[in-house]
Each structure stands twice: as structure tokens, then as C-alpha cells.
Amino acid sequence: MFRRLVRLQGPLGNILSPDKVCPRSHQFRSAVNYSSALAEKGRFYKDVSISQGEGGLYEINLDRRKLKTPGGKLFTTPNEAMAIAVATEWDAQKDTLKYYSMHLTTLCNTALDNPTHRNKEQMITAALKYLETDTICYRVDEPHSLVELQKNEWDPVLHWIENRYNVTIGSSSNILGPEIPNSTKDTFRQHLKSYNFWSMTGLEFVITQLKSVVLAIGMIDRHLSVEQAVLLSRLEEEYQIKYWGNVEWAHDYDMYELRARTAAGALFVHLSSESSTVKRKLMQD
Amino acid sequence: MDQFRKNKITGERYCRAQQEAHHDSNTYLCLLGSTRTHLALHKLYHGKGDRSQEEAAAMVGLRLPKQPGGKGWEK
Question: What ipTM describes this predicted complex?
Fold first, then answer.
């Protein structure tokens, strides 16, 4: 039983441990448990491979064992490319497992387990909420060069999305943000509905990371690259960095983390929506 | 790893339009590169952890005493 518990690996690790806790030394024991949960897990497998299981879904194998989600389910991906990417993440781990660097695995786990038990409708509503405080639409009044910078960098993206989707989104510099007409929201809602559950998980993740619906859609529609989208999302920060100087351990650290997460989200969406017509039956939840 | 590199190339052929494939491969490259850079930065700046007792004592020029039997509560 204990060995089975150890085997259930997932990016969140397994905090359970079948200790018989003696009331006298309870405090000492829980200190030990806590530290062992935080201690980094070493890489316990040598080889990573993928295999195709039932229903055409792909599984990941760490040595002889099948990977499972934190929720205990079998870890599956809808297509081979996604499985390869996830397997690469696991294979890239060196001596210790760094779960916070395995973004695709985390996204797959979220899609498979759905720990917050949301359906697609709720995710779309949550995603569209970001539109009202979209980074691109939220302008400053001063300093003047930042206003110019925002106009030059953000306006083209706004124009692009307004043309592409035939909507109106203003920009505003007052604290309440722009007024988004309902027709715009409806258009986007319809568009988002066309994504399947997995893609929607990824898309919502990207929107949350970039703090902007416009930038997320711009990147997913391949109008912007990941680097561009991250740059536009962090426009004010980059402006301040140019003025005041760069702090590598904070600015670069944040930027690379944001890039990694956004890239993972984008890849996740593209890989999930690739064969959507074929896999739709399997992905229904 | 070699097997994975081979498979990675195959994976990208699934994309149809050439521009799509190009964008996707750039995205994947960005993912791999920035994850690696992020981990490197983390190790460089955030990975050190606490100092041990010996190191903390050495900072002010003291040394920890050695007890032959070990301290009472150890082990």
C-alpha cells in the first residue's frame, strides 16, 4: 500500500504519508512530515516513453510505471505531439524534479482532473471578465513618453482584433476602464465556444498570465509571437526598466517565467485544438 | 533523448499550413529556452537555501563545539 502511494506521482507530489502518529510526539512528527513534503523529489526513473492506450489516447511511462495525475487518474493526452512534449518535460528533469518547470504537465493535469469542477461556460465567463480590465485597453495619462509608447504598441493590436472579429473595443485612461459593448462580449463568447474543453483550459491560462484577452487571442491566432505578447503585456515594466535599469534576479526571472508559461499555454491550446474534429468524441466530459 | 529529438521533428509535421508550423515551432523553442533560462536564474539567485549551523557560526568567527558522544537529543 505504501509503495503504491509513493508511485502516484504528479506535479503536486503526494503529501500523504501513512504515519502512525503518536500523540506525545505529534508535533515533532508533523514537523518531519512537513519537511519531507517540501523536500525535493529526486528523479526516480531512468527512461521516459509514450505509448498509445485505449481510445487512441496517449500515456506517459516512467520506466515501467504509467504516469498518473494528482487526482489519481491515468494521465492521457489526446494526441502524440502533446505526449511527446510532456515526456520531454519529464525527461528534461535532472537530479531533482522541479514541478514548477513542467508547465505542459500541469496544464494536462488541470484539464484531466478539473479540480475546481468548472464547465466550459464558466471558464468562458471568467476569461471574458478580463476584457473589462484588459491590459491593452488600460492606458495611463502620464508620463507622456509612456502614453506614446502605449499608443504605438498597443493600438495596432487593438485595430487588428477589431478588424478580425468585427468588434469595438475602446481604450480608456480612467480608472474604471473601457466600456465594452455587449455585442463585443457576445462575439467573443461565440468564438471561445468553438474551442474544446482542453483548449479552453489552456486559453484561460494564457489570458490569466498575460492579463489580457486581446493579447491572448492575438497570440493564439498567431498574429503575435510569444515574445511579442509577453513584451506587450509587460510594456510598462519594460519602460521602467529602460529608465531605471534592469534587476536580473527579479525582472529577467519574471520575464522568463512568464514566457515559459505563456509559451506552454499557447502550445497547449494549439496541440489540443489540432485534431479537434476527430477527438471531440473522446474529449467530451 | 535522440529518440525524442526524432519524434519531436515528426510531431511538428502534423501541422498543415507552413506559417502555422513556423509559429508553433517558435513557440516550442521559446518554451524550452525560457524554461531553461528560468531554471538557471532560479538556481543562480534563488536556490541557495539556508546556511547550515557551521556556516552561520563561521560568519562571526566562531566554531561549533564537538561533543564526543553526540548531543543528547540527536539520533
Answer: 0.74
B20 near A CB under 8 A: yes
Decide if A216 contacts A268 (C-beta within 8 A). no
In chain B, domain spans: 1-38
| A88·B14 Cβ contact <8 A | no
**Cβ of A263 and B19 within 8 Å?**
no
Confidence band for A28, pLDDT divided at 50, 70 and 90: very low
A85–B11 CB contact, under 8 Å: yes
Rounded-to-integer distance, Cα A242 and Cα A68, Å: 45
Q: What is the pTM of this model?
A: 0.75
Cell triple for residue A29?
512528527
Report the 3 state secondary structure along A76-140.
Answer: EECCHHHHHHHHHHHHCCCCECCHHHCHHHHHHHHHHHCCCCCCHHHHHHHHHHHHHCCHHHECC
Q: Give A30's pLDDT tier (boundaries 50, 70, 90).
A: very low
Q: Would you call A222 and B4 a contact, using CB atoms and an 8 Å cutoff?
A: no
Q: Which of these ranges, A51-60, A234-243, B55-64, has the smallest mean pLDDT?
A: B55-64
Instruction: Give CA–CA dist A224/A204, Å, rounded.
Output: 17
Under a CB-based contact definition with an 8 Å cutoff, are residues B29 and A267 in contact? no
DSSP E strands, chain A? 48-52, 58-62, 65-66, 76-77
- CB-based contact, B37 to chain A, within 8 Å: yes
Length of chain A: 285
Cβ neighbors of B34 (< 8 A, separation 6 or more) are: A256, A257, A259, A260, A263
The pLDDT of B17-44, averaged and rounded, is 87
The answer, for A253 touching chain B at a CB cutoff of 8 Å, is yes
Partner B, chain A 199-238, Cβ-Cβ below 8 Å: 222, 225-227
- The owner of cell 462580449 is A185
- Pairs of residues, one from chain A and one from chain B, whose beta carbons lie less than 8 Å apart: 82
